[in-house]
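Hello support,

Our group uses your service weekly, and this is the first time we've seen a run hang past the timeout. The protein is Putative sulfotransferase domain contining protein. I'm not sure whether the cause is the sequence or the server load. Input pasted verbatim:
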Amino acid sequence: MVERLVFAILCHWRSGSSVLTKLLHACGMHLGNEATGWDDAWMVGPCEHNVFNSAGNGLYNFNDDSGLPAVIKTLLAYRTEAQRNDWDAYGVKFTHALQDKCFARMHPLFVKFWPDAHYVVSVRHPAGIVASLKGTEITTDKIVESWMSAVPATKDLAKAGATIVVYPDMLTVPKARKVVSKLGLTWTAAASKLMEDSAGKIKGSVLSSLTMAMFDRNYPEAGKAFKELVKLS
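Update from on-call engineer: The timeout came from a worker crash unrelated to the input. Re-ran successfully.
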C-alpha cells in the first residue's frame, strides 16, 4: 500500500490558515480536483473547500449538522482521487472545526474516514483576531468566546501529535521551512515566492508586546490559554 501524507488543517477564523495552506500546497500538498469538488476559480483564495466552509458555518452559527453527509462524501472523494492520481500528499483546511460544538461532530468524521490524517492547527493570539476584524459588527467578547471554545480541541489534538503553528510567528521563512520539513514536505521555489509575496501581510499581523499585554489584562483566561498553546507548538 502506498503511503501518502494526509493533512487536516484546522483553525479558528482569522488565524493565518489560508497562507499556511497555500504554503503546504506550494510544497507538494494537493488541494483537490474537480472530482473532489475543488474549484480553483473561487476556492484558491481562502484555500478552503466550499463543502467544509458551509458545513462549519452551519454548525457554528446555527447548530445545523445537515452539511455533514456532504463532508463525508468529500473526504471519501479525496481518498479515491489520491489513489487514482497517485498524490503523494493532499489535505484540506477547515475553519469552523475546533470550536466545541463543531469539533464534537466533525472530528469523529475525520477519525473514521481519514484515519491516517495528520492534524495541523493554526493558532493566533485573540488580540490579533480582534484587530483583523476591527470595524465589523463582531464584538471582542464574541471573538474571545469563540476562540476560547476552540482551546480544548487544540490541546487534545496537540497531545495526540498534531503540529501547532502559531501565526504570524511561525510563518517567517526559517520557521516555515522547519514546519514544512517536519510535515515531510519539500521546500520549493514556489514556497519562497509565496513567502516573499506574503511578507508584508504577515509582518503587519505582528502585535506589539504592549498590545498583547493590555489584551491579556482584560481577558486573562484567553491570555493564559494562548501562552499554553504556544508551549505546545
